[in-house]
Amino acid sequence: MSKKNKAFVKEITAMEDDFPQWYTDVVLKSELVDYGTVRGTMIIRPYGYALWENIKNDMDRRIKETGHENLYMPMFMTESQLQKEKDHVEGFAPEVAWITHVGEDKLDERLLIRPTSEVVFGEHFAKIIQSHRDLPKLYNQWANVVRWEKTTRPFLRTSEFLWQEGHTAHATAEEAQEETLKMLDVYADFCEEMLAIPMVKGRKTEKEKFSGAVATYTIESLMHDGKALQSGTSHYLGENFAKVFGITFQDKDGKEQYVNQTSWGLSTRIVGGMIMVHSDNRGLVLPPKVAPTQVIVVPIAQHKEGVLDFADGLVKQLGEIARVKIDASDKMPGWKFNEYEMKGVPIRLEVGPKDIEKGQVVLARRDTGEKTFVELAQLEGMITQMLADIHDNLLNKAQQHLAESTTVVTEWSTFKEQVEKGGFIKAMWCGERECEENIKEETTVTSRCMPFEQEHLSDTCVCCGKKAEHMVYWARAY
Question: Model's pTM, two decimal places?
């Protein structure tokens, strides 16, 4: 490798030396994002937005296949609207961005930019729902929200981010609870099938649940550095918002009832999670199913007659089975190799005069670096199989990391030691909020979830020694 190419790679800090800086280097150098002028905002560049579009398009398909319709709600609401649900406003008040003036004129009532949309959906549902025949309402919107974060990092935590938020209304609690868990499964399946990220599913504690919800369910993933990431949440709201906003309907017997609601969301934060699960010291490693470019064609000795024409023909041929691009720029091949490794393109296809003579090309995998000579007659089948193999390899590696980084702990002294090693800790808990807060204060870990598949690890709480009620996943988190 030339000195120039080595310098290109050195622009990324080694994750072993400084993981947060490694992450920042990767998202900036791979041209996913740039910093916005306003603190905590990000410019999602074309490559990053193409990645988000692939995520969005597949998730949108899954949402619609479960019977939901898309709509769009206003991004502004009034202060009096937000104040209607006490628990909800207390949960979001520190992060709310207020609008006090229009031009030189002070508003009679402050407006806010939505941190989430339960309030506006609640008011809308109250207008359009009268009878049991109007139910269920199964809605979703793709939108931006604003939460004025104190500490920000591109994708993971920004003052403005993109997401989808589902909001549904049902005739019974059973239907709403079924919806809540169904959408959590949709999220978990999407993350595994499209992003090659295994998830831990469970219920949040009362302390960690969504403000205004009866129950919050979560999918949690584990990053390279042993920290957890809340990757998607689904909330059972019960009748809480219905009572505040007067969302009632006449049931089949003519009696007035409150609806039961849910809300659920997955955001651009999942892009950050995908990066921190799969990528390495050479840059991005993208799961093939969402990679903006799945195959990059790099012509070798492209100045020689016939090479570019042959490479263009391959692009057209493979365009039927994959997202393919060609780099016919004047950069040296070695520079191109490094650039597309940095950008995480799953497969690099190299073809030069000697390859054309032999009726072959060279395929290089981003995940393993392995190079394979492939005959042209076998190329389409090999590309299809290799993309599938890369996804499976990424998922298997992530599953292995999750398993190896999850530890069962029954003693408090061991718990505190394990915290410093990172990863998930499975330990019993008494169920008391004060104890949970003590654990966080002493160790800086938080409860990630009470998994659906409960295990009896011991009879007593790992912290206070009282009778254990739940097995909990604990971890430091982003």
Answer: 0.95
**98: exposed, middle or buried (Cβ count in 10 Å: 0-12, 13-18, 19+):** exposed
User: What is the SS3 assignment for 221?
Assistant: strand
CATH of the domain at 425: 3.30.110.30
Residues 187 and 221: beta-carbon distance below 8 Å: no
Transcribe 76-93 into DSSP letters: EEEHHHHTTSHHHHHHHG
Sign of the CA dihedral with 303 first, then 307, 311, and 313 last: positive
Is residue 345 one of the residues assigned to a domain?
Answer: yes
My answer on whether 469 and 376 are in the same domain is no
Closest by CA to 75, choosing from 44, 38, 36, 119, is 119
Q: Is residue 154 within 8 Å of 33, Cβ to Cβ?
A: yes
Q: Are residues 172 and 204 in the same domain?
A: yes
Q: How far, in whole angstroms, is CA 296 from its chain's centroid?
A: 25
CATH number at residue 256: 3.30.930.10
Give the residue among 348, 373, 357 at the shortest CA–CA distance from 306. Answer: 357
Q: Per-block average pLDDT, block size 10, for the chain (478 residues)?
A: 47 94 97 96 98 98 98 96 78 89 96 95 98 98 94 95 98 98 98 98 97 97 98 98 97 98 98 98 98 98 95 97 97 96 98 97 98 98 98 98 98 98 98 98 98 97 98 98
